[in-house]
What we know:
Blueprint: E1 2-8, E2 11-17, E3 26-31, H1 37-44, E4 52-57, E5 60-62, H2 67-72, E6 75-78, H3 90-100, H4 107-121, H5 136-149, E7 154-158, H6 166-181, E8 185-190, H7 193-199, E9 202-207, E10 210-215, H8 222-230, E11 254-264, E12 270-280, E13 284-288, H9 295-302, E14 310-315, E15 318-319, H10 325-330, E16 333-336, H11 340-344, H12 351-355, E17 366-367, E18 370-371, H13 373-386, H14 403-415, E19 421-425, H15 433-449, E20 452-456, H16 460-466, E21 469-474, E22 477-483, H17 489-496, E23 502-503, E24 506-507
Parallel strand pairs: 3-8, 3-9, 6-7, 7-8, 13-20, 13-21, 16-19, 19-20
Antiparallel strand pairs: 1-2, 1-4, 4-5, 9-10, 11-12, 11-14, 14-15, 17-18, 21-22, 23-24
Helix pairs in contact: 3-4, 3-5, 4-5, 14-15
Bound molecules: adenosine-5'-diphosphate and magnesium ion (MG).
Protein name: Ribose ABC transport system, ATP-binding protein RbsA
GO molecular function: ATP binding; ATP hydrolysis activity
Keywords: ATP-binding, Nucleotide-binding
Amino acid sequence: MRSVSKHFGPTVANDAVDFAASWGEVHALIGENGAGKSTLMSILAGLYRPDAGTLGVAGEPVRFRSPRDAIRHGVGMVYQHFMLVEPFTVAENVLLGARDRGVVLDTRSVEADLSRLGERYGLAVDPRAPVWHLGVGERQRVEVLRLLLLGARILVFDEPTAVLTPQEARSLIATLRALAAEGFCVVFISHKLDEVLAVADRITVMRRGRVAATTTPAETDRRALARMMVGRELAAFVEHPAEEPHETVPAGNVALRVRGLRARGDNGLEALAGVDLEVRAGETLGIAGVAGNGQRELAETIVGLRPTAGGSVHIGGRDLTDKGCSAVARTGVAHIPEDRLATGLVGSLDVSENAILRDYRRPPLARGPFLVGRAVAAFTDRLIHGHDVKTPSRWAKVRTLSGGNQQKLLLARELAGDPAVIVAVHPTRGVDIGATEAIHGSLRAQRCRGAATLLIGEDLDELLALCDRIAVLYEGRVVGELPARGADLERLGLLMAGIQEATASGATAADRPPVVLRG
Ligand SMILES: Nc1ncnc2c1ncn2[C@@H]1O[C@H](COP(=O)(O)OP(=O)(O)O)[C@@H](O)[C@H]1O
Ligand SMILES: [Mg+2]
């Protein structure tokens, strides 16, 4: 790719980017959120057209008008969100793509090819299984197999391990290496530095739409990569987050108690199937699990945004089951929701209006029905300075702030009243490294102050670094719990896959139709 540029409205996603990857290599593409990685690779895969610049494959200049065009030239991409038809079987999904491309294949030969390729590259799936039966890791394998069968020789993976358990991630990484060993060109987008250092032959770092550096694992390390990603030295960069010493705080009384909690998801199906948990003052309980196993519903029922279908929620000894979110907030519960601009903040309101959303009815911010301007300004300034929120002024619309600064403002507001209980869902998702450090600092400080925190996360490193205990949610149940310090990653991964007891003869997954491996 030469001098490739792409903008979306005023946003320059790619700014004259040069990028080259070779046959037979795993080429990692790293950078902070918003650096332009997905855009660049979507251009390579024919999803977007560049505003400027040229592409070449195997020395030939190419111009792709669609993903189909790209696949014809051997370029395929595994996106972060899969594009499979759920009621169809694996083989049918593959056939669908092939027909699109004008290739006529019969089911039986596709099934045979899938088994053969699956075996060869460690991508085992049952070709006859309907896709809705499959877990996330298996669906991802189907996507890869589909591209291989369509003849892709250049394979792009967009943050493929983000959705996987540690075991699945390890297996995928072995697949990437196997593909490279057979001469494929593999581009691996990630922001997990350890993973990149372990698997990549070369690493290209993007920063704000440009290429900041291209290097190799031998020439660099985590710290240097992080510096290239953010463009400055990180004062408190944690070399190995999981090993960071954990300040011991004596745990106090039970602040949050959840018993037999049941709830339905947005689709009306049971999302929580009887959850029990307890968090004490000064303690952080992490909730791990593959996305979609009830995490969102758990947080929402606790904070009173979603009705329960059974069970109870006690906060500080008071029964707050189905009492509504205002009552829960008044009891001293802070909520850092998953979607900060839909639930947490109001993008069209300014910084100070968002800052007072929780407390605007009460003194000192209000006197009778009136807001006290000076008090509002002082309160807002305290939040902005206390949490280093970078904003042009108190009157800037919140939607114009970066994701990291929005999140810092949200945390500042929610933590301002020294809450007894904090429910935080993916608090650092989509924010830059600097803001992530600041948010971790705030949560640690709250723990030391004595807050009971329920931290729902998808990044195991983050959970291990911040939590005292980790409970794993699987299909709406807590399937196991372990201490975070010195946690057994193997067991954690098995629990995330729904496997509670690993036996010598192999493990059994709970409530999932068995996957038959053929070939
Ligand atoms: N379809 C789109 N419409 C508008 N803006 C977009 C779109 N896709 C990406 N962007 C913007 O382009 C920039 C680069 O995004 P992206 O390529 O997704 O980064 P990365 O994958 O490195 O996180 C970001 O500022 C993002 O908000
Ligand atoms: Mg991306």
